[in-house]
Write a structure and sequence with these properties.
- The structure is a single chain.
- By secondary structure, this protein is α/β, with parallel strands linked by helices.
- Helix content is 34%, strand content 21%.
- The protein folds into two domains: 4-150 and 293-336, Rossmann fold; 152-288, Phosphofructokinase domain (Rossmann fold, 3-Layer(aba) Sandwich), CATH 3.40.50.
- α1 (17-30) packs across α8 (295-313).
- It binds 6-O-phosphono-beta-D-fructofuranose.
């Protein structure tokens, strides 16, 4: 039976989103279904309706492209949306408006591709009666209920390449190079790229660090003949006796969440004060989110897209696609949201890093 399905991408972009869109369109078209692309995340169905039809031709050539051809937004949260009334801004739940607009576009199901925030909205809309399927996305890899999210593998590749490049300049100048990477709540990017890139120190949000121990490790390495050190710091890392470093606070940002940033420079200043070494800082920022997806992310995104269409065919709404081992399966969106997939400070990966001689801040 012919169907019309809609897809949107929400939250921060990441490599592999276009592979998902292409996977959805190609497999849905094969079934004879129409696909509508909602532009700019939930923004595309909150105030007005920004929708366009997608077909094999419109998704041609996008597999290797970063970002999302649909656009995205990490601000338009229908559960807490700014509405101006009598010259004042009120933060309201506009879910009913979203459902009304969605019904107008004539689609029977919505595929919502996003991280924890987007999936929470998707779950809420599902509870209100919308036929929703979730697809997990985030370079931070902090979503529970899937072994890995697409975008993460590419980000780890970008950071690893940066660490390789920084090694040669750090070595030439006998410097400490502090590299700030993304990872708001979870330190996966810092940990895995740090291991892959031969870092000497890795600081994660899950392990509050002691600057005394960090400096001691750098000094010890120097005494052993290591004239330079590479320190990888997740943006959400913080000292045991301090707090996360915030660039733009909650109330000051145009969105609702606070923007992290600055821990790299903070750590660099601390290291500079407690060692004799010259220190430099690099903030990789959105470079980690941009550019072409790795083969792994193209394949995972494509498989997630195909699986989402299968779930719609089977009427399994309220489900989210997920990777478990080597298999793409599904789980409920409700199970996936709320708690995050964090690095286990006592887990095998952290212990292996320490056995490799990497200092993790403790
Ligand atoms: O959630 C992914 C993420 O990359 C975080 O690590 C980071 O804090 C955030 O997005 C930055 O988002 P924005 O695009 O709003 O700067």
């Amino acid at each position: 039976m012919s169907k019309t399905v809609a897809i949107l991408t929400g939250g921060g972009d990441c490599p592999g989103l276009n592979a998902v869109i292409r996977g959805v369109v190609r497999s849905a078209n094969q079934k004879g279904w129409r696909v509508l692309g909602i532009e700019d995340g939930f923004d595309g169905i909150i105030e007005g309706i920004k929708v366009r039809e997608l077909n094999r031709k419109s998704v041609s050539g996008i597999l290797q492209r970063g970002g999302t051809i649909l656009g995205t937004s990490n601000r338009g949260n229908p559960l807490n949306y700014p509405v101006e009334k009598d010259g004042e801004i009120h933060w309201l739940d506009v879910s009913d408006k979203v459902i009304e607009n969605f019904n107008q576009i004539g689609a029977e199901a919505l595929i919502a591709v996003g991280g924890d925030g987007t999936l929470k909205i998707a779950q809420h809309l599902y509870e209100l009666g919308l036929n929703v399927i979730g697809i997990p996305k985030t370079i931070d890899n902090d979503l529970k209920s899937t072994d890995v999210t697409f975008g993460y593998n590419t980000a780890v590749g970008v950071v690893t390449e940066a660490l390789d490049r920084l090694h040669t300049t750090a070595e030439s100048h006998h410097r400490v190079m502090v590299v700030e990477v993304m990872g708001r709540n979870a330190g996966w990017i810092a940990l895995e790229s740090g291991i892959a890139g031969g870092a000497d120190v890795i600081l994660l949000p899950e392990i509050p660090y002691s600057i005394g121990h960090v400096c001691a490790a750098i000094d010890k390495r120097r005494e052993r003949g290591g004239k330079f050190s590479i320190v990888v710091v997740a943006e959400g890392a913080f000292p045991a006796d301090g707090e996360v470093v915030v660039k733009v606070g909650k109330g000051e940002s145009k969105g609702e969440v606070e923007r992290l940033g600055g821990i790299g420079q903070y750590v660099a200043d601390q290291i500079s004060a407690c060692t004799a070494m010259e220190v430099r800082t690099v903030v990789l920022g959105h470079l980690q989110r941009g550019g072409s997806p790795s083969p792994f992310d193209r394949i995972l995104g494509s498989r997630f897209g195909v699986k989402a269409v299968d779930l719609i065919e089977q009427g399994q709404f309220g489900e989210m696609v997920s990777l478990r081992g080597r298999a793409v399966i599904s789980t409920t969106i409700a199970d996936a949201v709320g708690a995050l997939n964090l690095v286990d400070p006592e887990g095998e990966l952290v212990v292996a890093a320490e056995k490799l001689g990497i200092m993790v801040g403790r």
